[in-house]
Structure formats: C-alpha cells, structure tokens
Amino acid sequence: MSAQPVSPSRLSLNQITTKNWSLPEAVQGCLDAGIPAIGLWRDKVAETGVAEAAKLVREAGLAVSTLCRGGFLTAPDPDGRHAALAENLRALDEAAELGTDTLVLVVGGLPDGSRDLVGARERVAELLAELAPHAGDLGVRLAIEPLHPMFCADRAVVSTLGQALDLAERFPVEQVGVVVDSYHVWWDPELASQIARAGARIASYQVCDWTLPLPADALLGRGHVGDGHIDFRTMTEQVTAAGYTGWIEVEIFNDTIWNTPGADTLRTMIERHHAHVEAP
Amino acid sequence: MSAQPVSPSRLSLNQITTKNWSLPEAVQGCLDAGIPAIGLWRDKVAETGVAEAAKLVREAGLAVSTLCRGGFLTAPDPDGRHAALAENLRALDEAAELGTDTLVLVVGGLPDGSRDLVGARERVAELLAELAPHAGDLGVRLAIEPLHPMFCADRAVVSTLGQALDLAERFPVEQVGVVVDSYHVWWDPELASQIARAGARIASYQVCDWTLPLPADALLGRGHVGDGHIDFRTMTEQVTAAGYTGWIEVEIFNDTIWNTPGADTLRTMIERHHAHVEAP
C-alpha cells in the first residue's frame, strides 16, 4: 500500500492535533488526505506498540517527521536525573525504531518549590551532554524546543530560540538541534536574527497560531494557522532562507479542534497550509 | 499632617493592588501602614480630580513613585496616532502636576487584524520620538514597560528588557527609561545582563509574583511576592547593582487580592517585602 498522490509536499500531521484518533486512525487519515508525513507521540505509539507502529507507518509510506517527546531534564536529585536519562534513552531508541531522525525535547520547568532558574538551566545542559553522543550513535537528533515564556515555571526553562541555540551549539550539529514552533517564538524581537543563526540546527518547524483569549488551560489555546496573530508567510521565508527544507508540522492543542472530526481538521490544515505557509 | 514612621523605606503601593480603594482611601491606607509612596492610576486620579489628588498626596507626605499609565502607541492611521499623542501629552502633564518623575508606558499590541509586529514596533519608536522632548521639558520620564510575551498580541509589542532598552537608548536618559517588572521579565535568560545594561535607565522597579495556574483572565494571575516562582532576592540584588535606588512598587492584578480588605493586603505586602525583597 503506498501513499496517495500528495499536494502539500512538506506538510506533516503532528498526532496531537487529532488527539482523539488512535495511531492507525491517524495514519489512515493522512493517507486519505494526501498528507505525506506524521509526527508521532510516545503515548499513542505505546498504545499500538513500537514495533507495530513502525511497521504501520512504514507500510503506509508515511515519513515520520518527529517523535514527541523527550526532555524533562531539570530534576535536581540523583534519582530524578537518573530516571530522566533512562527515559530519554528509551525515547531515542523508539525514535530510531520508528524511523525518525528527530526527538523533540521539552526541557522541563522549575523543580517543585525551587526558584533557581539558573540552576535548572544548568542541569538541562548537563543532561544533554550525557544524551547527545547516544543520539549521534542512533542517527537521531535531540531537538530542543523553546517554549513560550508563559510555560517557563512549569514546563520549559528554555524560553527563546537564542537560548536553545546557546545550548545546542555546545554539541555537534548532527546530535543537537532546535525546534522552531511558531506558537512559542512568534513574539520574539530577535526572531529573525535567531532563525538566521539557527541554520542547519533547525531540526523541526512546527506551526499553529496564537489566538486570544487564552483559555482556562493555557496549554490549549492554539489555533489553526490563519486564525490568529502570527505572520506565517514571513516566518516561513525566514526558516527557508536559513536553509531548512524539512517537514512543516502542524501541532495544535485545542479542545474545540480535538472535538472536530479528524478528516475535517486535516482538510482545514491543508487549506491553511496553502493559504498562509506554502503556496500549492 | 505628616506620614507615620515608616519601616519599609523604599516600598510603594501601586494603586491597582488595592483596586477597590478610592484614592483618598489608598492614601489613608499607606499612612496607616507606614508605606511612604504610592503609584497612581489615571482613572483613580480622575475620580478625585488631578489638582485635588495632587494636594491629597502632597499633604499626606507621600511620594508619588509613578503614574500609570500612558502608551498604546501602535495605531497605524493618522487619527489614531494623533489621538495617542494627545492622550500621552495629557498623561505627562498629569504626572508633572501629581509630582512624579515617571510615567509608565504600556506600548500597545497589534492593531486589529494586523500581523505586522515589526511595523507596530516601528510606530512605537516614532511616537516616542514625538513625546520624549515634551517629557524632558516637564521633568517626567517616559518609562517603557516590557510586558510578558503572552501579552504581545493585545497589549505590548515590547516584550523584553533588551528590546525596551534598544528603544530607550535612542533618547536622552532623562527623557526615556524602562520599567523592570518582575512578573513580565523573570523568565528572560538575558535578564541579568540586561538589568546590568539598563543602569540609569531603570525608572521603576515593580514587583509581584508569577503564580500558577494562570486564571481565566490571564491579566489577573499575579500573586503576592513569595507566593510564586520568582527569586526576588537575586533580582533585587541585580537591580541594586545596576545603580537603582528608587521605589520598589508592588503592583498586583488579582481578583482574590482585590477582594481582600486593603489594610490586610498592605500588611502582607510589608511582610513579604521584608522577607523576600529588602531586609528591614
């Protein structure tokens, strides 16, 4: 079975965008819509089993743009650090088995009760140093994702593309890269210069829009491309000018979209991709 | 009538923290609590009248740390720009009459329907250039407040201290400064270096804490110093090392705190100030 003829040649469905679909449903949805790639989530993969999931996407002819996600590297105690390392090594192995070259990392927030942001950031660097060689051996890149500063306390102490690059550049380019996710970085006054600086470090370009008001759960406020305040044409030009030619992954956390039939969501994704990101 | 003996010698009550108090009530609250300064809001001042408000705080012996707020400078059309200029000139005059040397500016978000962040930022610079000489003549500084990036679309296209300094440094130091507000800047990986750079540009140091979860209205999520994730001791040391010796203003937007009796709020402010910001 091979993929349908595809029009949006660089578009990838990040699986969280169709959260209510199982992995087999998401794979079929991509085939039906002509979307050539998928970004997988570890929890969904686990439901199917890693080997079976790998077989499923391979036989469908889909590329795996990323695996989401590793990270959470800020534990201060030896047990916490050891557990984080073990978990990330498993995630790297899964990424290799699934056939993707990119493991997205959400680095983790402040440990409970801590206000030591500088220390938390140092621990991220330390654990990256332990993981990077293993990633290189497997041919999988650790892709540091700066998260919007509103998630600094609880999810990611890496908040800007510049900061992610400061970390990534300590390692060989094939071992550690960065994610440019429109939602997290669009506001940054240094965005243009940091995307240019990123160059070959860009391991993934993820898109969704900044919409207002923020919902009660700030995690779930992302909108379809075109529904909010982000200038995708300009950002895509900048990412392209930096040399990135890889997948453009739509990753949306939004209850309303999650409750929309998946096929409708994919149709909207393709329309918006052509209207705002890449002309057909 | 003179102020009571004061222990927290640099503490100022930003009036929004006791939103349900009128100006006369807030002035009396500061006197009762021994707080020597107040940051005024234009809407509260207008209820009393500018001349009467000026007389009230002067006779109470209170310093006026700031006037909040001017700004909203991103309108793209001539009428909108003209109206913004006129409004800010009025605010500068009020600041001078009230006896403060600092007008806090929230620069404004993206105009309706616009995704042109670069253009909006340019318009802020253009209107600052028109306002700055008038501010200098009155002895009032325009204090650019970078707002947290989650307010970039709708309230302030200036999101970092570095960006605020890039703007401020185009003008004489006595005309344009910056606000360091802990809530807005605490996450910034460049915070230490940008505070050091700011030096004499620091026109105001405002404090409140980053608490989670964010409430339904993200504007209202601020907590008392000590209730959240911010390391105030370190930030205060950095601001002090940069040469700032002015007021430390507590500015909290929070429905629960607004519904607390003002005297209780001021007591908590003083306790937290001594515990986390400045030893008594």
TrEMBL record, chains A, B:
Keywords: Isomerase
MF terms (GO), sorted A to Z: isomerase activity
Keyword Isomerase: yes
Keyword Cytoplasm: no
InterPro entries: IolE/XylAMocC-like, Xyl_isomerase-like_sf, Xyl_isomerase-like_TIM-brl
Protein origin, superkingdom: Bacteria
Pfam families, per the entry: AP_endonuc_2
Residue intervals passing through the bilayer: none
Domain Xylose isomerase-like TIM barrel: 31-264
Protein name: Sugar phosphate isomerase/epimerase
